[in-house]
Write a structure and sequence with these properties.
Length: 219
């Protein structure tokens, strides 16, 4: 095990020495992620779906380290239908989030796997606005409860991905989740709520694929 770990460390250092992205290279990229979940219990059915699109611009300095700025949009919807009490209860929750990201990404060459493959570690800070619309209704009544909620978030995190360089100017990436600390100011029913959560999330909800194009060649 120690020999394998030593080999990986040596390969990373060798990669840093030889698989360099030229200083001054500029990269524009976009990514997309989506997931759908369906769950059925004895008296209830739940559907949830989400989609994320993002774009970014990166400028490379020394040692495969680049500065990033980016914009992301996430849309999600949850629908719940249950009839455990003889009444059909229907709940719907729609969410829209818009975030701005800035930070640094270090591209670590994985030469022991493939000379074109990189482990990209994106360290970022991200302010985010969140909008939520919820409806809860019972089929045997004329009443329904509707609520609209806004919140502001600020996150610090690390998002790892695998990046594969091909055809001189192109980069294909696969996002693999995130590690983050998020602060939220939630205006719930006119009562402000502040809270902080920390999470490591490797679920498909945070996976995605992306394509990047170098505006100046990667040698």
């Amino acid at each position: 095990m120690k020999k394998i770990l030593l080999l990986i460390i040596i390969c990373l250092f060798v990669g840093q020495a030889w698989a360099q992205i030229p200083q001054g290279a500029r990269l524009v990229s976009g990514s997309f992620g989506a997931n759908y979940n369906w769950a059925k219990q004895r008296w209830a059915v739940n559907h949830s779906s989400a989609a994320t699109i993002a774009s970014s611009y990166s400028y490379f300095g020394k040692n495969n380290l680049c500065k990033n700025i980016g914009l992301g949009i996430r849309m999600a919807n949850d629908r719940f239908t249950g009839n455990g009490t003889g009444n059909i209860n229907m709940q719907s929750n729609s969410n829209l989030s818009v975030n701005f990201q800035f930070g640094y990404t270090n591209f670590l060459p994985l030469l022991f796997v493939n000379k074109h493959l990189f482990l990209a570690l994106n360290s970022y800070a991200s302010p985010e606005g969140h909008f939520s619309h919820s409806v809860n209704s019972l089929t045997n009544t004329q009443n329904s409860l509707e609520s609209i909620n806004y919140s502001m978030n600020f996150s610090l995190g690390i998002a790892p991905s695998l990046a594969f360089h091909f055809k001189e100017r192109w980069l294909l990436s696969a996002n693999m989740g995130l590690i983050r600390v998020k602060y939220t100011l939630d205006e719930l029913r006119d009562f402000p709520i502040h809270y902080i959560n920390t999470n490591i999330n490797l679920s498909p909800a945070f996976w995605g694929i992306g394509v990047g194009y170098f505006l100046s060649p990667k040698s």
